[in-house]
Amino acid sequence: MKRMIQNLVSGFYRFLYECAGGENRPVFYDVDKIAPALRDLERNYPVIRGELVQVLQSNRNLPTYHELDPSQRGISAGGTKKWKVFLLYAMGAKPAANRALCPQTSALLDKIPDLFEAFFSILEPGKSVPAHNNNYYGMLRYHLGIVVPKENPPSIRVKDQIYTWKEGEGVLFDDCWEHEVYNQSNGERVVLLVDVLRPLPLPAHMLNLLFVQVMRVGYASGVLKNLEQFH
User: Fold this and answer.
1) Residues in CB range of 168: below 8 A, 6 or more apart
2) Inter-residue contact 121 to 83 (CB < 8 Å)
3) Domain-wise residue ranges, the chain
4) Inter-residue contact 45 to 176 (CB < 8 Å)
5) Using an 8 Å Cβ cutoff, are 127 and 183 in contact?
6) 2-230 maps to CATH 2.115.10.20
7) Chunked in runs of 10, what are the mean pLDDT values of the chain (231 residues)?
8) What residues pair up with 195 in beta bridges, in sequence order?
């Protein structure tokens, strides 16, 4: 039975990979064509930044990425600097305590079609992220620069292309390509990370929606349980 399930999952991932374009799929995507609702986040950047700054100034004990999601330990736990997260949405699960601190940001996220996950991604000064890649081709990743140090601003390499974050600017990319973060800055780097479902042909899209529901029961419930210890 276990082998059969593994084969089914492997076949599903391969199906999504092919529907996404395989090795010919883009690295970066046009936000206006793929997920125009994300532009509302950029238009409301001052509001989002204001809520984020209040969270940071409250000196709350924010979890590191791997404390929230142990599967991220390999890319989050290395070194003395921390990669912290402030979760707002996970596969339909909505952490009430966090969202109460960022009500306007949460309301904006709730208007985005096919939202998969959203959180503030906070890198301490000098915290880089080693090369890695997602293996689930059913989504695309968006970053909105919220706080970006002006001196030695951090950048991200996706496949063979490099993007340097800018405050108030959004970028949409495929994180199934190998990517890594270069950060030699002396200040915190914060982006609002938003995952949305990748546009796919109808059969693949319906299977993608079904997978999200499965993830909500498994992955998202575990993440929310881990989050409870930080409140």
Assistant:
1) 42, 45, 144, 145
2) yes
3) 2-230
4) no
5) yes
6) no
7) 80 94 98 98 98 93 96 94 97 94 98 96 97 96 98 97 98 98 97 97 92 82 90 74
8) 117, 141
